[in-house]
């Protein structure tokens, strides 16, 4: 039995002859909050795309809870418990917060499913619980288009949580958030990571310091180094990459 929820084994991704990811290996443990940093073009987004099945590697494999994901379709990987959030929030603007949660329920994917489950008390309880986790319990009836940018980011995290995934992949979740919203998001991610694993791409080092268990630094499609935030910030090769030396 392994401690890892995800093992990325010697992955290479090639776009038009260019190796965007080059022999990358990475393990993420159960209940770990892993932050991935690195300069633009390092391959961070491609890494998340590989795990969720959006991008297929030329070489290597991705193991998730003992299952080889490498050849599976995106929708199959979602069903196994991997949820992905992109940088720009993607919510249903004309639906209320509650309705956004309802359509995100695994049962709510069909119109009939959503009508049936809307009246289910356990679903109502689940929505209330998730709404309170993501600080949206007071705006359940508000249409998503009237939420602040930060609230939309939270709504999307809530829409992931309602599906009860084992692994959340987040691409810059605090981009565009106020200082206070960043602090709340840090608390939220730490709370989520008590029962789930998270891989988050982030640039804001203050935020990284407030959440990271382990930081992975990527450069030119590979892992440059891994360790605590202090360890990676002291690493001479990391300093050189960030200073462009
Ligand atoms: P990061 O997220 O670290 O900024 P990306 O994973 O987005 O890096 O990109 C890694 C490299 O792969 C970059 O040089 C980028 O231009 C290239 N790349 C990413 N996606 C594609 C694509 N669909 N087609 C061609 N090149 C791509």
Attribute tags:
245 residues; alpha/beta; Rossmann fold; 6-stranded mixed beta sheet; 4-stranded antiparallel beta sheet; 10 strands; binds adenosine-5'-diphosphate
Write the layout of secondary structure elements.
Layout: E1 4-15, E2 18-29, E3 33-37, H1 44-52, E4 59-64, E5 67-68, H2 74-80, E6 82-85, H3 97-104, H4 111-118, H5 121-133, H6 149-161, E7 167-171, H7 179-192, E8 197-201, H8 205-211, E9 214-219, E10 222-227, H9 229-234, H10 236-243
Instruction: Give average pLDDT, whole number.
Output: 91
Largest sheet: 6 strands, mixed
Estimate nothing, just give the exact number of structural domains.
2
Which CATH class of the largest domain? Alpha Beta
Shape: globular
Protein structure class: alpha/beta
InterPro entries: AAA+_ATPase, ABC_AA/LPS_Transport, ABC_transporter-like_ATP-bd, ABC_transptr_urea_ATP-bd_UrtD, BCA_ABC_TP_C, P-loop_NTPase
GO molecular function, one term: ATP binding
Domain ABC transporter: 6-245
Pfam family, one: BCA_ABC_TP_C
Q: Can you characterise this structure?
A:
The strands form two sheets. This protein has a six-stranded mixed β-sheet, sandwiched between helices. The chain has a four-stranded antiparallel β-sheet with strand order 2-1-4-5, covered by helices on one side. The chain contains ten helices and ten strands. It is α/β, with parallel strands linked by helices and 245 residues long. Helix 3 (97-104) packs parallel to helix 6 (149-161). The chain has helices spanning 44-52, 74-80, 97-104, 111-118, 121-133, 149-161, 179-192, 205-211, 229-234, 236-243; strands spanning 4-15, 18-29, 33-37, 59-64, 67-68, 82-85, 167-171, 197-201, 214-219, 222-227. A hairpin with a 2-residue loop joins strand 4 (59-64) and strand 5. It has two domains: 1-81 and 168-245, Rossmann fold; 91-164, no CATH class. The model has no long low-confidence stretch (mean pLDDT 91). The longest helix has 14 residues, at 179-192. The chain binds adenosine-5'-diphosphate. Residues 15-16, 20, 38, 40-46 line the site of adenosine-5'-diphosphate (ADP).
């Amino acid at each position: 039995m392994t401690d890892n929820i995800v093992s990325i084994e010697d992955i290479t991704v090639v776009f038009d002859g260019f190796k965007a990811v080059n022999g990358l290996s990475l393990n993420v443990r159960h209940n770990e909050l892993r932050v991935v940093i690195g300069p633009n073009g390092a391959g961070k987004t491609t890494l998340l795309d590989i795990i969720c099945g959006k991008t297929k590697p030329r070489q290597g494999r991705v193991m998730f809870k003992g299952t080889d994901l490498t050849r599976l379709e995106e929708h199959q990987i979602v069903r196994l418990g991997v949820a992905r959030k992109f940088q720009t929030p993607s919510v249903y603007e004309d639906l209320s917060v509650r309705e956004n949660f309802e359509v995100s329920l695994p049962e709510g994917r069909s119109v009939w499913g959503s009508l049936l489950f809307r009246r289910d008390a356990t679903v109502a309880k689940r929505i209330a619980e998730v709404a309170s986790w993501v600080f949206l319990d007071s705006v359940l009836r508000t249409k998503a288009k009237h939420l602040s940018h930060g609230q939309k980011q939270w709504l999307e995290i809530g829409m992931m949580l309602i599906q009860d995934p084992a692994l959340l992949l987040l691409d810059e979740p605090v981009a565009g958030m106020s200082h206070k919203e960043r602090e709340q998001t840090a608390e939220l991610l730490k709370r989520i990571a008590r029962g789930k694993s998270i891989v988050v791409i982030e640039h804001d080092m203050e935020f990284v310091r407030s959440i990271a268990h382990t930081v992975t630094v990527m450069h030119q499609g590979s892992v440059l180094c891994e360790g605590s935030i202090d360890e990676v910030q002291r690493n001479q090769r990391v300093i050189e990459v960030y200073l462009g030396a």
